[in-house]
Design a protein that fits this description.
InterPro entries: Acyl_transf_3_dom, Nose-resist-to-fluoxetine_N, O2_lipid_transport_reg. It is built from 28 helices and no strands.
Length: 663
């Protein structure tokens, strides 16, 4: 009887994990023979660990015991994929091989087939790919080799099996027209400026609205007005980055993972907090939406004028969001299905079918309430945000100047009542329904959590109304320097830091496998997002009034301005790109935190590129057309050059009502 040492077992694994070429003269597999950089590895470790007698004993145990053999077989040699297409290499599962640890006692019991170390292998269903002749059904093909095999067919694919649908022709026509307009407008713009060398101020605004040249200049021109909240650039950019990194994780784990069991260990560690807390970024957007709703509307006139122009308030908001949303939906419903292919393309097909069925629900911003599949899953946020805008005039009307003196008391009462009412309603709803705090903590009830809590306007409203409070405070002291004592500023910063830190770090105990506290879940579901919104709201207020220090300097850097302007387009496009890329994968993803980070950077760059294209071709032109619609008629571009103009389309993101639409 013997008990093998861990380092000797690790040596055996290291030898098995080597790559070897087999020929008639088989030599020992040594790292010094395989690597030209022998000095980078501890060769003595390999030499000293050789023990032929111990190796014979271990091999005999492994060959006699299925439980011991399975990890080595699973991680080791297999026929290279694509061997008939020139691939003669298969690396096995490197990390799985190196991770095998086992202490073995040489007893008769150890030679029996044990199942405790390989849980429920006999009852597990595996998913495999099968290549069969076109003329054969799956049942017929499998019956020829294993008649008693119990299987369920998922889907079959054939070359050229993606039929062209009417929506594909619509997409080709629409985007062809847009492309032609971009080409015409850009040529007109370039000829006017460089060939004819005429005054740019005399160019027709209508003719250049689709010009890539002018729209790129405007996109890259950063000039803020006196009332601008520069720190919002950094907050918006960081928030969209946080959204993308969170979706990188969630979409990656929806596809096959080599080390799926390891993810649960990672989720229960502190290393996962930056991912598990990513949904808080959505509450940042809700808070900013409410803040800007007040900040940009309350200064425009009296209550009477606001009520008189209420239809324009709604129309402006809807039209401002419509072009990019419609373009993203059309792309998802048509071209996304044909852009590539892969073994998991059925996932893309489901997303495409969802948009073909529910495109009108998405455009009406009713996806969180009307039954049916959600087109562009992330656009639930737009539906909730629009619904909050629909009811915001109930509060906004009291925040506008009354016309004849006074009004502040009514304004503060209105925003306070709105916050308290939304918190009370959300609290009652959450305590009555006993939702889990996080879907991972109750995987068997994810559908109910997402539909009834996560995308519910009632439960997501408090951060929006908290944003109204901070927006009203910023409006009232728009032109006034507020003098606060250093002690009070320190207390407020400490409170804000404590609230936001609590919202992040509370995820750690909640996600532990032994957690079970429904009362705490109800409390967090009711108030945690509001805590986060209060902390971020104070940050904006402090930065605006000179109490932000280095935080304000960092958030106001120019490097944030471009991703902030592109954030709406990035939000609409990034998940579709992720799903397409993951559906093309030919092998399972090996999950590590660094692999996740590298994947995120690829997703981020692709999202920025797609956002730039759609912003220049769709968002910027239609923003200019909308401005012309509200101002009346096509005019000459005679205000200033594009580099100086701070009142046209994309630049409006930092001026007036267009500000709130860039999120």
């Amino acid at each position: 009887m013997f008990k093998s040492k861990t380092w000797l077992i690790l040596l055996f694994i290291n030898i098995l994990s080597c790559n070897a070429n087999f020929d008639n003269n088989v030599n020992a597999l040594r790292n010094k023979d395989l690597s030209p950089q022998r000095n980078l590895f501890d060769q003595d470790l390999y030499d000293d660990s050789l023990d032929p007698d111990l190796c014979d004993k271990q091999l005999s145990l492994i060959l006699a015991n299925t439980t011991f053999a399975l990890p080595f077989l699973d991680a080791g040699f297999r026929v290279p994929r694509g061997i008939l297409e020139g691939n003669l290499v298969d690396l096995g599962n490197y990390h799985q091989c190196l991770a095998i640890r086992q202490n073995i006692e040489d007893t008769p019991q150890s030679r029996e087939i044990l199942t405790s170390d390989v849980p429920m292998l006999s009852s597990m269903a595996v998913t495999v790919a099968l290549c069969i002749p076109k003329a054969c059904s799956t049942h017929q093909a499998l019956s020829a080799v294993a008649a008693s095999l119990d299987f369920t067919e998922d889907y079959c694919r054939l070359p050229g099996d993606k039929p062209t649908a009417p929506v594909d022709y619509v997409a080709i026509c629409v985007f062809s027209v847009i492309g032609a307009l971009v080409l015409f407008s850009t040529c007109y713009d370039l000829l006017y400026v460089f060939l004819y060398k005429k005054d740019p101020k005399e160019k027709s605004t209508l003719y250049i609205c689709f010009s890539v040249y002018t729209n790129t200049q405007r996109l890259l021109t950063f000039k803020a007005g006196a009332d601008s909240l520069d720190c919002l650039d950094g907050i918006r950019a960081i928030s969209i980055i946080w959204v993308i990194v969170g979706h990188t994780h969630s979409t990656a784990t929806e596809f096959p993972i080599q080390n799926l069991l390891r993810i649960s260990e990672w989720i229960q560690s502190y290393n996962s907090l930056w991912i598990m807390a990513a949904p808080l970024s959505v509450d940042t957007f809700f808070m900013m939406s409410g803040l800007l709703c007040v900040y940009t509307v309350a200064k425009k006139g009296t209550r009477r004028s606001f009520l008189k122009n209420l239809p324009l308030f709604y129309l402006h908001r809807y039209l401002r969001m419509f072009p990019l949303l419609a373009a993203a939906i059309l792309l998802q419903a048509s071209l996304a299905h044909h852009v590539a292919d892969g073994p998991f393309w059925s996932t893309v097909a489901r997303e495409v079918d969802s948009c073909r069925q529910s495109w009108w629900i998405a455009l009406l911003h009713l996806q969180n309430y009307v039954s049916g599949p959600i087109c562009l899953g992330q656009t639930w946020y737009l539906s909730v945000d629009m619904q909050l805008y629909w009811i915001s005039p109930l509060v906004l009307v009291w925040l506008c100047a009354p016309g004849r003196g006074g009004g502040r008391r009514a304004g503060w009462c209105a925003v306070t009542l709105a916050v308290l009412t939304s918190l009370l309603a959300a609290t009652i709803y959450c305590f009555l329904n006993d939702f889990p705090f996080h879907p991972i903590s109750n995987t068997g009830n994810v559908g109910r959590y997402m539909q009834d809590y996560y995308i519910n306007t009632l439960t997501r409203a408090p951060p929006f109304f908290i944003g109204l409070v901070f927006g009203y405070a910023l409006h009232l002291w728009r032109d006034t320097k507020i003098e606060l004592s250093k002690i009070l500023v320190g207390i407020l910063w400490t409170l804000a830091g404590a609230l936001t830190s609590f919202a992040v770090f509370v995820h750690y105990p909640i996600l532990q496998s032994d957690y079970d506290n429904q009362l705490l879940d109800n409390f967090l579901n009711s108030y945690m997002r509001s805590f986060w919104a209060i902390g971020v709201g104070w940050l904006v207020f402090a930065c605006k009034h000179g109490y932000g220090g280095p935080i304000n300097w960092f958030l106001s850097l120019r490097l944030w301005k471009l991703p902030a302007r592109l954030s709406y387009a990035m939000y609409l496009l990034h998940m579709s790109a992720m799903i397409i890329i993951n559906s093309m994968q030919l092998s399972p993803f090996y999950f590590t935190q660094w692999n996740l980070i590298f994947t995120f950077f690829a997703d981020m760059v692709l999202a920025i590129l797609l956002a730039v294209v759609l912003t220049l071709a769709v968002d910027a032109p239609f923003s200019t057309l909308q401005k012309m619609l509200f101002e009346g008629g096509a005019k000459k571009s005679n205000q200033s050059s594009p580099l100086q103009n701070n009142n046209v389309q994309i630049i409006d993101a930092y001026k007036d009502q267009d500000l709130e639409s860039y999120k």
